[in-house]
Records
---
Amino acid sequence: MQATSLDQGPTTGTSRPTTMKLLFSRNPNPRLAVAVARQVCASVDFEFAAPLAPGQAERYRALNPCLRVPILVCPEGSLWEADAIACRLARDAASPFWRTDAREPRMIQWLSWGKENFVRACEIVQFERVTKQRYGLGPIDPGKVDEGRALFAESAALLDAQLAVRDWLLHDGLSYADFRMASFLPYHELARLPLRDYPAVARWYGRLEALDAWRDPFHGLQAPALPPVPG
């Protein structure tokens, strides 16, 4: 599927029309949404968007008042936040990637825990060591790095114990919980997160990297590269 313009009708490069458009960037949460769309073979068009770029805010404000991507533009309006978009795309595709039966509470358990613990830890460290340096937002705050690394050590140890006895977070296989938990790990080397210290977590992430949808969600899309992180 190719990127399209907000000012054009949706096209996919095939004769089958689509009715939804996923606005994205290469940052972690938009990357997560694109990976989900690829994983569930969602019928969407993709468009790179930068709502915070100069002169762009009013173009996107009606779609998301927070002026952030991802945004899913639907016939009935727009949907924002990666978790909500993942739910919608999986349900529309009739994919069990987002569990909708008795397994759903367990999946949501990992979403909730992850965002307050492992994902948050990765985000704290990445913001200091990667995002701030990439966009010139100021020097690294060693105190915040220490805070993030401490939370990473605590939460990664728990994950390591869980993943030592199964391949994925849910006993019955891959789910959105795995994608969400790993949402900041594509940048773990730049953030210098010690993933190798937790062998089961490292093996789990290796399994995710073996999935085309996760490893290279932007394949074939028009998406400017992120600015480099100064060495």
---
Amino acid sequence: MKILIIGANGKIGQRLTKKLKNTSHPPRAMYRDEVQVAEAKAAGIDAVYGDLEKDFEHAFDGVEAVVFTAGSGAHTGQDKTHLVDRIGAKKAIDTAVKKHVMRFIMVSAYGADASPDQWPDSMKHYYEAKADADKHLLQTQLDFTILKPGRLTDDPGTNNIAIGDDLNREKGTIPRADVATVIEKCLSAPQTIRRSLELLSGDDPIDKALASL
């Protein structure tokens, strides 16, 4: 499958693009900066310009799956969070439906489906945007996987995770490298389709954890 990565310049997106470059799921990396597009093409990556705040439908041409890992960041102002994490995500979902790109992996956030009174005030707008985008995806007939990782770190990946519909534990952390690996594995894991999954560092190797779903 050709995989459109929305948010290719983010820390997860960069790792995922590198992972997929020489696999049977080649990436198409979407950037909102023409310089980044040129640099990616020079590195042998199929890259395309696209801005979530504008029209980016052309990026979906010829792809079979979408990974949405764009994000304004938990500490970004409410206006940018609304435009990227809510409106941009919902536009991507609607475009996938319109273009019949059935496989859609959404990188959300641990706790996005929690009761709003559990969200810290400083990040409430972030969780509201993530929850709204997830709800929009759940209402489609797409072959979606919603991944809700805990607090992201730049630590080296361990390849050991905990994943499930409800991990029933306090919030934890997970390296971005492991999230990228999980996304890659989910592309070939039909048991993750139409699932909303919490994701943290844990004790089980990624392949074993996914196989147990």
